[in-house]
């Protein structure tokens, strides 16, 4: 984020320098817009996956362990540049009100997904459970961002999520 300049963004986008400075008065404004775009895409994919995961509620097809597997798949499919954007948003949010609002939107989307799945499974306190689940996923995401090893993350993440889901559903 610190290396972003109008010139570098224009070069990467293949547009004249005047284009980026015409649409974005400051580099901070441009960075926030880019982060917002990535966050919106991530939120849309989370919302779509959640609808798919809880879509079988009330039928004999809903299976909490299958839902957990889908969460793991969703997490491992997040591209590294989205993880970079997510953690940049989190780290910079105390210094930038626009990024703070974006961080809250992201966190709310993640928690909404976990809460919907816990509710579908019959959890008595899905809100608390959702926060615990997202904290676990964020921990894995941070480690994955710093040290990518998706194949090694699958089993321990699935095990941790299974334990948390069942702790709040039992």
Q: Which key features would you list for this structure?
A:
mainly alpha; 8 helices; Tetracycline Repressor, domain 2; 170 residues
Your description of this structure?
The protein is an all-alpha fold. The chain has a single domain (26-169), classed as Tetracycline Repressor, domain 2, CATH 1.10.357.10. Helices cover 79% and strands 0% of the residues. The longest helix has 28 residues, at 27-54. It starts with 5 loop residues before the first helix and ends with a helix. Pfam families: TetR_C_31. This is Tetracyclin repressor-like C-terminal group 31 domain-containing protein. InterPro entries: Homeodomain-like_sf, Tet_transcr_reg_TetR-rel_C_sf, TetR_C_31.
Low-confidence stretches: none
In whole angstroms, the N-to-C terminal distance is 44 Å
Please report the number of helical segments. Answer: 8
Q: Shape from CA axes?
A: elongated
Number of domains: 1
The helical percent reads over 70%
> What would you report as the Rg, rounded to the nearest angstrom?
18 Å
**CATH superfamily, please?**
Tetracycline Repressor, domain 2
Q: Got a strand count?
A: 0
Determine and state the CATH class.
Mainly Alpha
Strand content: under 5%
Helix/strand/pairing category: mainly alpha
Largest sheet: none
- Looking at the structure, the CATH topology is Tetracycline Repressor, domain 2
Give the ordered list of helices and strands. HHHHHHHH
């Amino acid at each position: 984020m610190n290396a972003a300049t109008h010139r570098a963004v224009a070069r990467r986008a293949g547009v004249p320098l005047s284009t980026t400075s015409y649409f974005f008065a400051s580099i901070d404004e441009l960075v926030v817009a880019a982060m917002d775009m990535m966050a919106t895409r991530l939120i849309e994919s989370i919302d779509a996956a959640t609808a798919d995961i809880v879509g079988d509620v009330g039928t004999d097809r809903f299976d909490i362990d299958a839902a957990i597997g889908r969460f793991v798949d969703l997490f491992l499919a997040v591209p590294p540049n989205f993880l970079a954007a997510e953690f940049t948003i989190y780290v910079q949010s105390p210094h930038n009100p626009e990024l703070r609002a974006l961080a809250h939107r992201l966190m709310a989307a993640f928690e909404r997904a976990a809460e919907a799945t816990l509710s579908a499974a019959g959890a008595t306190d899905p809100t608390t459970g959702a926060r615990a689940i997202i904290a676990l996923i964020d921990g894995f995401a941070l480690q994955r961002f710093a040290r990518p090893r998706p194949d090694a993350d699958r089993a321990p993440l699935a095990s941790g999520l299974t334990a948390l889901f069942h702790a709040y559903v039992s």
